[in-house]
Amino acid sequence: xxxxxxxxxxxxxxxxxxxxxxxxxxxxxxxxxxxxxxxxxxxxxxxxxxxxxxxxxxxxxxxxxxxxxxxxxxxxxxxxx
Length: 81
Prior knowledge:
mainly alpha, 2 domains, 3 helices, Antitoxin, toxin-antitoxin system, Put_antitoxin
């Protein structure tokens, strides 16, 4: 086990199940917690974009979603014919 220190942590059953769902194959629970704790929150990005840039990004996301829906509709139509 090397020279790592270990701690016991109590979790509610709900918290345990959430952590278990986030656990990736081959990953220990410690690995999972370290990965999740290192993730950045979207709130960390607040204030980085101007309002105009944020509007442009929202528009681009909406356009991409519409294109994806259109492609899916065309594919579904081909499958049904």
